[in-house]
Amino acid sequence: MRILRDNGLTIVLSLATFACLLGMILTGFSVYNQQLAEHGQASISAGQYAHSGHFLSALFENWESEFLQMSAYVVLTAFLYQRGSAESKDPDEKTEQDDDAQRNINRLDAAALVRSGRFLRTLYSYSLGLALFGLFILSFFLHLWQSAASQAADTAMHGRLPLSISSHLASAQFWFESFQNWQSEFLSTAVVVVFSIFLRFKGSPESKPVTALHSETGAR
Question: Which of 50, 92, 96, 173 is the one with CA 20 to 30 A from 114?
């Protein structure tokens, strides 16, 4: 079917996401009920677990780091270069991505926002980075909220008073949760940038052609 061919990448990634979410719920549900049993508390259902701070904190913690990675990658690759990488623009050439939208404003097939005035056109020009950064900010606060809820449930099991959300924001535990994911995202991105200089994967738009020189920059 044409719809499957044209949208196969999104469909497969979406299915993989849902499969991993299901696996995360089932395994996390087992771990959490074991913790409850160790503290003499009644177990909960999988549905209850899916709404718990234990699950949602871990979920949003990962989303936060992914959206930080992608927003940083989009913004940094607009201004910085890595010669030879398929993930970088060529520092010696001007690319289509650098074109001023003003020059193509009268194209009939241009997006409506391109023809909607300078402010909306400028906003649209940077909309990908802004949208990804917005998702990072949203995920950050959702992680904070659910991490505080998870911490409150844990302290209740041990008979201690929970921290407020503002106190949890200032805690080492919350920032440890964030930094442990952020560092891995920046590292993995740097690895892809550098590996794409020397290594190839035939057929992938993220790779240079197999016969390309290591010094050639961009996937072309």
Answer: 92
Contact (Cβ atoms closer than 8 angstroms) between residue 110 and residue 104 = yes
Where exactly are the structural domains of the chain? 1-51, 52-220
How many whole angstroms separate alpha carbon 24 and alpha carbon 21?
5
Burial 67-76 (b: 16+ CB within 10 A, else e): bbbbbbbbbe
Q: Find all residues with CB under 8 Å of 172, minimum gap 6, and list them.
A: none
Length of the chain: 220
Residue type, 197: I
Maximal C-alpha separation, the chain: 70
- pTM exceeding the 0.85 threshold for the entire prediction: yes
Determine contact, residues 184/50, Cβ cutoff 8 Å.
Answer: no
* ∠ CA 65-68-70, rounded to 5°: 110
